[in-house]
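Good morning,

Both structures are done.
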Amino acid sequence: MNQKQKRIVQVSYILYYILLLAAAIYCYLTQKKGLTMGAVALFTCFLVPLVLKILHLKPIFEIYMINIIFAAIASIAGSMLGAYSVPFFDKVLHFCSGLFLSELSYMVFCWLKRTTVIKDKNERILSIIFVNACNMMIAVFWEFFEYGCLIFLNNDAINHYTTGVHDTMTDMLVAFVGGLIITGCILSYYRSGKKNFWIRLNEHFYDINFNS
C-alpha cells in the first residue's frame, strides 16, 4: 500500500472504533441487549487481516477496506444496534460475504499454486471446487458463531427462536449464490481470457505478495 492508502486504512479503523464506542454508549443508555456484542465487535475488524498474517500474506488496500466496512455493518449496525430486524439486511450481508470470501478463497488457491495463470483443465476444476468448498465451510462456521452468540451471550439478533432452521438455510443459500457469481467470473476468465474486476483484484494481491 502507498502512504495515502495507509492513512485511509488508519482513519477507517479510528472511525470504526468511534462508531463502536457510540453504539456501546447508546446500548447502555437504552438498555439494549446489543451491548454484549460490543466485545465481539472489538475484534471482528481484524479477523481477515489476522488470517492473512498467519499465512504470511500481505493484505491489499481493497481487502482492508472491504473487511472493515463489512465488520462495521455486521457487528456494529447488525449485532449491536439491531439492524438485523430490517428486512433482508441479514440476507444481503450473507450474499456479500459469499462474494468476498469466494474471492479470498481464489486468492489463497493461486497463492498455493504460486501462479495466477491456471491453464491445466484439472487444476481449473480444482480451483472452482476449492473456492466453493471454502465459501460454504466459512458459511457453516459463521452459523456456528451465530448459534454460539445465541446460546452463550443470549443474543438472538436474527430471531433464531422464531425462524429456526429456515434462517440458517437461507443464510447459507445466499452465500452460495454469492460464491456462484465469483465462480462465473472465474469461468468467464478461463474461457475468454478477459479480466474482470475480481480477476484483477486477485492479480493485484498476488503481485503484492510474490512480485514486489
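Second structure follows.
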Amino acid sequence: MAAKSGQKNRIDVLMDEASVALAEGRYFDAERVANVALGGAEQVSDYERMARILLPLQEARRQKRLAAIDTGRLTCLSDVQHDEVVLEAGCYLLEPMMVAAHGRDLRLRANEEKVPVLVVVREPKTQMGLWPICMIGPKTVRARVAPPAKGADDEPEPTIEWMVSASEALGNEAFAMVDPDGEAATRVKQISEVLSTCNEHEKLHQWLAEACREAAQLVPANSNSSR
C-alpha cells in the first residue's frame, strides 16, 4: 500500500512539472513528463489521475503539431533514410519506398531534437486509387484515404491541408479498433495503445479521458484509500 501511495505522489510531482513546462511553452518537456506520468498512473490503474494528465498532454502535443503546420513547409521523402535528412520544423510525407517504421523513427528523432513535425506515411496506392496511410507503435494502424488533388503535372499534389486530414483519418481508424462494448478498463488499455501510435490525434486523448473517468467510477472505493 505504501509503495502504491508513493507512486501516486511521484505521479503528482510529474503532473506539476508538466504543467509548469506547458505554461512556459516548453512543449516537448511537457509532453515527455506528462507521458511518463500517464504511464505511471496506468501502471497502478489510477484512472482518475490518467484523465487529469491527458489534458496537458493533449495541449502539449497540439502546440507541437500547430508549430509544424504553421511553418507552411511540406517535405516529401521517398528514397532517403530519415537520419540523412536535416530536420526542420514542418510536415513530412514519407512515400514508397519508405515505410511506417521510418515514420516512427522520424518522429522519435524529432522529439529528441525538439523539432516540431507532423509525419504521415503513405503506402503504394490501391487498385481503387486510394492511398493507404500507416503508422506503427504498440499497434499498427492503417487507413485508406483519397489522394490529394492533382497538380499542374496531372499527378497528386500533397498539401498541408491534406496532411492534416490524413492524420485525422488515421486517428479515427485507430479509435475504430477499440471494442465499444468492452469494459471501461479494457477500453482504457486499448485506446492507450492506439494513442501511443497516433499521438497527434486530439480526439483520441479526449476519448481516452472519457474512458478513464468511466473506469474510475467503477474502481472500488477502498482501492483509493491510499491517496
